[in-house]
Input
Amino acid sequence: MFGIEDPVIYIGYLLAIASSLLCVVYGLLNWNKDGEKPEEVSKDLEWEEKEEEINAQLN
Amino acid sequence: MNHFVLGFIVVVYMLATAFLGYLGFKHTKSTKDYLLGGREIHPMIMALSYGSTFISTAAIVGFGGISAVYGMGLIWLTFLNIFVGIFIAFVFFGKRTRRMGHNLDAHTFPEFLGLRFKSKSIQMTSGILIFLSMPVYAAVVLIGGARFLQDIFEMEFATALVFFTIVVAAYVITGGLKGVMYTDAFQGGIMFFCLLFLLVLTYIKLGGFTSAHQELTNMTAMVPESLKTQGHVGWTSFPKFNSPWWWVLTTNLILGVGIGVLAQPQLVVRFMTVKSNRELNRAILAGGIFIFVATGFVYTSGALSNVYFHRENGQLAIAAAGGNIDLIIPKFINSAMPPWLIYTFMVALLSAAMSTLSSQFHTMGSAAGRDLYEKLVPSTKRSSMFISRAGIFISILISLLIAYKLPEGIIARGTAIFFGICAATFLPAYFAGLYWKRATTKGVIWSMISGIASSVFVLVFMHQKEAAPMGICKALFGKDFLFDKFPWMIVDPIMIALPLSIIVLVVVSLMTPKLPEEHINFCHKGIQ
Output
């Protein structure tokens, strides 16, 4: 196939191409899924306040 | 090649890199910015940074040269790099790592493991392992970049080494992970377009897709006798089953590097730099394309370089490069490609070295500062950012000293050893932290100890390539390696150390008390 006679090699190429396409399709299908959750935002603010407090104590 | 033109291009490239490093510095206000890019990195920047950190000069020059000598079998490494290194890594490891890292407020990979298993000693042990083993890997990459500058600017190797170190150190120390990831994305873009054109122009040069492959297949009779005995049966064929080269290709290169990528501390931390799992979904798309081009295209071009050199002067690629595997790809590009691609490719090689090196410096520094110093001196009056910067500075000095001492021709082998050790030491603990709630602190500690100990044992006493030159086995037992029954002397350490590390983790965890239920639930909060 395409000048390559060993099936192990062209199966390797087909798997590499298929894996790359899998990444593209997965990315497109899930483009807008799993956005940031409200509890993560509040947790972020909590950590930031904690860090500001520590920095204020240090300086 | 006009050295003045190339020198000018490299200077412009360095200035662009410096500007992006400065942007990272301007945007860095807190420890979270410095260690995790503020957890708000754009998915495309994250994907390119992950890819360009993953693909170093070793992947392009080292493995490209190997494909020129041994053929297209390395395409299986490309398959694993994409399927395991991107798809499995992002979907099954990345999403949980990001969420759990957020729950625990972890800033580094050792801190993630330490907080997940409620153990300061796990964090410190991981930090020590990274701090001790990664400088060797960094030194290997450093040598690759310095050799390039040595050739371009005709400077002494020692001067090139110091100059290259200072350039990378400047933006890593000041810009933190934001500086590293901005420059990574720029460097990854250069690598992508350069390697894309490399294969396209190779096919055009050789008269098309099928005819180039057919001509390479027809060259099978030219395989040197020395390679035939190793299992080489042609450049478009996989090596003969159970031959020495079959074992090296499958265990060392394909499995060692293909699976080892899952537990690379500098890559794992990338998952914690984005705002939500949506960003990871988007990064998968770019990552899958980037790795396919960055590895698959160069491995194919490497194999096809034999057709070019055979047409031009009746030689094989390895003969045209004077017997040095690492010179095949640069030689092929210098001989077969148009001047604009020669210049771009040189900058792409520099990009590959710098993007990997900057992440190594950042990971080593944060291990020294955040995971070791802050744990040993909890009452320190210094800020976390200052300590990490100091840690990076010390790590860079150590890497520089090692780079002076390392022998030549160690790039691909040094990379494979580091990937294998990381897999055996960290992968079982990392996987259990994400998926096995019954894993215990003692199970993880003993798994890590057995992983590193068995890796070192195999390297010192069993694996021919390292055991023989080290001479420790010879001094103790009177022979170069312990087992001379084929294939034990060529099986990669990962084949022994990783299964052992997994078994130890499971057995010790089942024999020791579980972690508190409320802690497990806290770690897994928000994870389906």
User: Anything to note?
Assistant: Residues 40 and 46 of chain A are 10 Å apart (CA to CA). The helical segments of chain A are 7-29, 38-58. The mean pLDDT of chain A is 74. Chain A touches chain B at residues 2-6, 8-9, 12-13, 15-17, 19-24, 26-28, 30-37, 39-40, 43-44, 47-48, 51, 55, 58-59 (CB under 8 Å).
